[in-house]
Structures are given as structure tokens and as C-alpha cells.
Amino acid sequence: MRAGRPSTGPTGSPPNSRFKSLFVSPLPSRRPQPSRSATGAAGYPCSSVPASALYKRRAPQPQHGNVATTDGDMAEEGELKPAAAAMQVEGAEAAASKPRFRMPVDSDNKATEFWLFSLARPHMSAFHLSWFSFFCCFLSTFAAPPLLPLIRDTLGLTATDIGNAGIASVAGAVFARVAMGTACDLVGPRLASASIILLTTPAVYCSSIIHSASSYLLVRFFTGFSLASFVSTQFWMSSMFSPPKVGLANGVAGGWGNLGGGAVQLLMPLVFEAIRKIGSTPFTAWRIAFFIPGILQTCSAVAVLAFGQDMPDGNYRKLHKSGDMHKDNFGNVFRGAVTNYRGWILALTYGYCFGVELAVDNIIAQYFYDRFGVKLSTAGFIAASFGMANIISRPGGGLLSDWLSSRFGMRGRLWGLWVVQTIGGALCVVLGVVDYSFGASIAVMILFSFFVQAACGLTFGIVPFVSRRSLGLISGMTGGGGNVGAVITQLIFFHGTKYKTETGIKYMGLMIIACTLPITLIYFPQWGGMFLGPQPGATAEDYYNREWTAQERDKGFNTASVRFAENSVREGGRSESGSQSKHTVPVESSPADV
Hints:
Elements (H helix, E strand, L loop, with lengths): L16 H7 L27 H5 L18 H23 L26 H19 L6 H8 L3 H29 L1 H18 L6 H11 L5 H12 L2 H35 L4 H8 L1 H17 L8 H7 L7 H9 L2 H10 L3 H19 L3 H13 L4 H16 L1 H24 L4 H22 L11 H23 L7 H16 L6 E2 L3 E2 L10 H6 L4 H5 L4 H9 L27
């Protein structure tokens, strides 16, 4: 058989490619070409192999048998060395064709698709870990309200005591959420999330030994700190999913986490009844029931630590150590967040969608129990339906935000948030007016829950674009604003006996409408606002580069911000005006590994 000509089988086809290199000797004048980063038909990026890896000559290795190993042995080595080189090149090409991730990603390695029922690492595993841990924190924080009639009778709580405890449960997370945002920026969402969950777990277990109004208030206050895990959830999703999918990812993760507020209304009465039926007294049964959310919260923290990953490329500690990621400091992160007025407006408006949801979680079961005289389990089921709407309402808000962005850009996201949240406020007013009808109250409450929770999803369809350097703190400010809104709402309308509950609900709706108006003031130079278009010549890259000094840009610290700007092209709307980066490389052809 002559070297350089492949043999063929009976049909004239070449032999198996695995053995092809044994029959074909590469021409010495032609060097093997490096395999470029490739993308499959479905857009799956493939890791590139440096040319140096292909051109690098391996040192002669000892051989067995009669195969020569010196340059003087021309016969056998001349036949086998080129074959080995060809196999090495083919192996390198095979490695180059293997994708780093199971999901399609953009130039920043963020997923460009959302596979809800997948556990693909690291993107979808981070999604499931984040929403489940937040879900468990919601269970713990709102485990007491469904059992409040029993706790009230056991401890002799007054209406003022109950109101103070409700305020304490959400007030504790105000500063915790801001701190959580900073922690995410500095150490990553994995460690930040697991830390706050584990630190608040003892308070959940202590709920079983409370004996007075003050101890009840304290456990609710410290348990409420766990709601700061919401910030790490949203930050984590913004780190794992590309701009066209970030609204959906944030919406589903936040919505399914908030689902805990509804599930607990159903779970705790059922757990109480089950414990009581096996022989426990009511006094003991409601105390034992608190161990269920405590155990779930502990398990979720362990899972986050064991299986979570901060970024698509690895954990913060590893990336900082390797130099692949700039380690920022608190001063720069803080300054970038507090000087961006858009973050403050979103914190205010979030206070009257998510904040209202928290307030309703605290009062709704007791409202139906007292106003319509239903059983405790029935009141819990009704209240659960309010929170359970999160399974589709908040994800629906995130999906709507992404859809509006695909058609109208950032201006569509802003208009969507204002319209949906204003409708939610109007329905809240109606809920307070129809207090004379049990059926009408339930129907309006469900409609109200859909709109107010969808507004939460729409809000976090905008938050990831406010800042890149201070994303965590902006998320923390917005999340903290939700808790501040809940505290203010409960202090004004549901504290003591100043207003009847139905009257407070009506006034709360009017406040939602008023506090949603500032959305009209949000303006991005590169994308525009609700009423004004983008500034001529403004780019997303310029907007995000303002957060970095010239010296930092020269050192490449802003690389991640530039990549995000490239991937945010469609926020300018269909015309993509004002959103293009200065770079001419299209997003679709950006390398998967940077």
C-alpha cells in the first residue's frame, strides 16, 4: 500500500477515520491548522484549542519492541512518527469540538436558553438551588401567620403585638438585603446565600420555645433576615443567564421562591393537624410544627454549598486567585450603586409590589378567619392561593418583560412594569371595597395577586441593566425597598386598631398607584425611557464604562461590563439604535471562551 493514498473498501469509501492516520502520511510541508472555536447548528459553542497546543512538538517517548527511537532509524520512525502526529492533531480537533457547557451560551458564557426541567451545570443547577433555598426561607419567615389564632390564644397576644411582630418579620431583612447585595459583589452568591440561611436557621427552631409577646417578636425578626436570600437568587440568575433570558430566569426563580409564602399557609395547618391527631395537644403541636421549615432551610443551605457555582466559569475564589476576575472593593461598589438614581426608583416601586405581597402574607389568613368566620384550615387554604399564584404570575412578569424587550427594547420593559403594577393597585382598592362578599373577595384577591406578583417579575427584568459593577448592591437596594414598603404599609394600615383591615387594604391600593408613577422618570441614555427615545450616539458600552476609571479600563477590569454591553443589543428595540457597542464583532460570533 502506498503512503499518502487512502485505501478504500469494496464500495470505494475511505476506511474508519480512527485508522485513517495510520494510512495517510501528512505532507511535511503542511503544518496542521488550529481548530477555531466552532458553533453547531443549534448554536452550541465549542471550546477553542490554542494553536500552540497543535504546533507543539512532543519529546520522543520510549517505545517497546523493535520500534526505533533515534533519528537515525529512518525506516520505522519515518512511517510511525507522522502517523502519531496526525493522531495527535485529530485528538486536539476532537477536544476542540466538545462544548464546555451543555447549554448554548453567549460571549460571557451566560446561557442563552432556559431549560426549566434540566439540571445542566452550572446554569440550571444554580437556578434550582437558588429558587429552592429562597422557597425554604419564605416557609420559615411566614410559618407563624397560618397558626396565629393558636399562637395568639396560647401567648395572649394583642392586636398591637401581632402587628409589631409582622413588621419585625420584614424589617429585619431591610439591611440584611443591602448587605447581601454587597456580599454577592465581593464573595459571590453561593457563599453569601448559604451563610445567611445557616445563620438564621437557629431562630426558626427557637420558634418552638417562645413563651411571650417579646420572644415571639424576636424570633420573627431574626427569621426574617433569611429573606435576604432573595438578593442572592436574583444576582445568581443575572450571572448565569444572558440579557434576553434574564427576565424569565429572575421571574421564575423569584416566583417559585415566593411560592413558599403561599405553600406555608397550606403546609403549617396540615402539619399541625397531623401532629395533633397522633396524640399531641394543640399547645405542643404548633410548637413541633416549626421544626419542619427549620429542617428544610438547613438542607437547602447544605445543598447550595455542595452543588452551587458562582459564575459559569467557576467560583469567585478560584476566579480571583487565577486573575480571571477583578476583585473589587466595597467603596467602589457602594459608590456605583448609591449614585445611580434608577436603583432608588426601582427600590421605591418594588416596595409597592413585593412589599405589598409581604404585607398581605402577614394579614390575609387572619382577615378571612375574622371577617367571614371560616375555619382555620379554610383561611389557610385561601391565603395559600394568594402566594401560590407565584408559580405562574411572577415568571409571567419576567417572560412579559423579555417579550416586550424583544419588540420595544428597554422602553417596553418600563411601560410593562408601570401598566401591570398600576392595574394591581386598582384591584387592591377593589378588594377592600368588596368586603361584604366572600366569593367576590376571593376572586378579586386572586386577580390582585397575579398583577402585583407579575410586577415583581417585571421589576427584576430591569434591575440587571441598571449597573454591572454594582449589580449585587443594586439588587439589594431594590429587594430592601420591598421590605421597607412592607414595613411602612403595615405600620400605616395594619398596626393596632386605627383602620379596619378592609379599609387598610383599600388605602394600600391607592398607595400602590401613587408610588408606581416614578417609573416614568427612569431613563437610559442608550435606550431611552417611557416617553423619550435614546440620545444620539449613546452606547451601552459608554454607559457601563462610566463605572470604571480610565486606569481600571486600561487594565481590563471592565471586560465583563463590555461583554454585557455587547449582549444587550436588543434593549434598543427593533432598530437597535443607541444600544450597539463600539466593537464590531457581532454577538453571535463572539467566542465562548474569553
